[in-house]
Amino acid sequence: MSVFKKLAGDTALYGVSTILGRMLNYALVPLHTYVFRRPGELASNVEFYSYVAVLLVLYTLGLETAFFRFAARKPEDRINVFNDTLSIVLAISVLATTAIILLAPQITQALGYPGQEMFVSWVALIVGIDAVMAIPFARLRVENKTKRFVKARLLNIFIVVGLNVFFLLFCRDIYTGKYLTFLRPAVSLIYYPSIGPGYIFLANLLANATYFVLLRDAFAGFRFRLDWPQIRVLLLYAFPLMLTSLAGLVNNVTDRLALRHWLPEGLYPHLTNKDVLGIYGNCYKLSVFMALAIQSFKFAADPFFFSQAEDKNAPDLLARVTKWFVIVCVLIWVGVSLNLDVLGLFLSPAYRQGLDVVPLLLLGNLFLGVYYNIAFWFKLSDKTAYGTFITVIGAIVTVVLNMTLIPVMGYIGCAVAFLASSIIMTIICYVQGEKHYPVPYDVKSALGYIVSAGLLIYLAWQIKIDNIWVAIPYHLLLLLLYIGAMLVVERKTFQPVWAKLTARLRKGEKGLGQKV
Q1: What DSSP letter does each residue of 263-290 carry, written as one string?
Q2: Does the pLDDT of residue 288 top 80, yes or no?
Q3: How far apart are CA 149 and CA 375, in angstroms?
Q4: Cα–Cα distance between 414 and 395 in angstroms, integer?
Q5: Confidence class for position 1, pLDDT limits 50, 70, 90
Q6: Is the dihedral angle over the CA atoms 319, 320, 323, 326 positive or is it negative?
Q7: SS3 for 328?
Q8: Helix count (H) and strand count (E) of the chain?
Q9: Which of 426, 429, 421 has the alpha carbon at shortest distance from 405?
Q10: pLDDT, tens digit, 9 for 90 and up, residues 309-337
Q11: Are the C-beta atoms of 149 and 78 separated by less than 8 Å?
Q12: Under a CB-based contact definition with an 8 Å cutoff, are residues 302 and 447 in contact?
C-alpha cells in the first residue's frame, strides 16, 4: 500500500504542474478566440503546434525513456548516461533547428502560409529548447526532485500566460488607443499588429528560454561527449520507442495536419478551410482535461514502474492502478461532456459550432490513456518493438479513416478516426500483453464504467436545455448520481478506507476531549 501511495502522491505532485499549467493555458483560449474572431486567423497556430509535437519526438529520439531505463538499472553510472543522452539530443537540436530556420521560406510556401517565416523560426527554436530540456527534466524525475520539477513547470506556464496577456491584450489595447495612450510610442517598439497570432509563439519561446536559468543546476556535471559504444546501446533501446511515439503522434495530430487539405471547400457553408481548422483546433483544446490527467500520471508512472520492474507484485499493482485510472478518466469524460454548454462560453461564438466533437475526443483520449497504462508490459520486458508494431497499426487506421471520413463528415470524421484508432491499439496491446506479461486487469469493471458513462452522455445530450441556469444544476445532478452509483459499486474498496478515516477522527476527538 505504501508503494501505491507513493505513486498516487507523485502523480498528484506532477499533476499540480500539469493540471494547473494546462488549465492556465486553457484560460488563454478565450483570449485567443475573442482577440482573433475569425477562426482562420488561428489556423497556422493550430497546425504549427501540431508539427511541434512531431518534431519534438524526432529531436529526442526516445532518449528520455532510455535515460529512465539505464539510469535505474545502473544508478552509479547515472551521470554518464545523462551526458550521453543530453549530448545526442543537443547535437540533433542545434543541427535541425538551424536547418529549419534556413529553410523557413520554402517551408511556409509548402504549408500554404506565405509570409510567416518568422513564425517557423520561432517554432524551430521552441522545439530545440524543449528537446534539450527534456533530459534535465528526466533527471529530476529519476532523482525524485518532484518539487523542483513542478516549480520550474509552473513558473514557465505563468510566464507564458503573462506574456500572452501582455502582448495580445495590454500592448494591443494601448497600440489601438483604448487606454494609457502616452505609452503608445514605447509599445510601438515591441508590438506590431502584422505579427498577430505570432505573439502566441513568441510568448512560448521567451518563456522556454527561461528554463536555462530556472534549471541550470539540473545540468550539474554535464560534459559533452559522444561515447559511440554507449550511444549505440542507448539508440538500440530508444529507437523503437521513438518510432512508437512518432506513430502515436500520427494518431494525435493527423486530424489537425490533414483537415485543411483533405476537406472539400464548401462542405461548411460560409467557412473557409482555414476557418474550419481554427474551429476544430480550439474545440479540440477542451479535451485537455483528459489529456492532462493522462500526462500527469505518465510523469509519475514512467520512473515508478521501472523501479518496480523486479517486484513480483508488479502485475497486481499495475492492475489496481489501471482500474482507478479508468474510473478517474471516466468521471472526467462525464463531467466535461455534460457541461459543454458552460465550457463553450469560454470560446468566442464563432468557434462553438465545433463542440460536438469534444465527447468523442475525450473518449479517444481515455482509451489512449488505458493503452499507455497497459503498454508498460513491453517496456518492462524490453520488447519495445511490439509498441512500434501496435502504434504503426494505429497510425495506419488514423490516416486511412481521416482520408475516408473528412471529405464526408468534416471534423467529426477526425474525431471518429482518432477514437477508432485508440480503441484498436488498446485491444491489440491488451491481447499481446496477456501473452508476454500477464496482468489481472479488471476488464469487466472498465467496460462497465465506459459503456454506462457513454449511455448517460448520449441520453443527456438528447434533452436540449437552452436555459443555462436550468442546464447547470440538471447536468450537475446527473454527474453526482453517476458518482454515487460508482461509490455503491466500489463500496467494498472504500469500506477499509472509510473505517480507517473514521477511526482517526474518533481518535482525534478522544484526544481533544482529554485535553479539554
Answers
A1: SPTTSSTT--HHHHHHHHHHHHGGGHHH
A2: no
A3: 25
A4: 13
A5: very low
A6: negative
A7: helix
A8: 24, 0
A9: 421
A10: 555 666 787 788 888 889 889 999 999 89
A11: no
A12: no
- Residue located via cell numbers 526516445: 62
Cα angle 145-304-83, degrees, rounded to a multiple of 5: 55
End-to-end alpha carbon distance in the chain: 35
B/e letters for 18-48, b = 16+ CB within 10 Å, e = fewer, are: bbbbbebbbebbebbbbbbeebbbbbbbbbb
**pLDDT single digits (tens) 3-19:** 555 555 555 555 566 66
pTM: 0.76
Residue listed under C-alpha cell 489601438: 176
At position 61, the amino acid (one-letter code) is L
Of 177, 247, 203, which Cα lies nearest the Cα of 394? 247
Cell numbers that stand for 346 in this block: 469560454
Q: For residue 302, what is its C-alpha cell? A: 514512467
Q: How many CA atoms lie within 13 A of 200 on its CB side?
A: 19
pLDDT digits (tens, 9 = 90+) for 299-316: 666 656 555 555 566 678
5 exposure class (CB count in 10 Å sphere: 0-12, 13-18, 19+): exposed
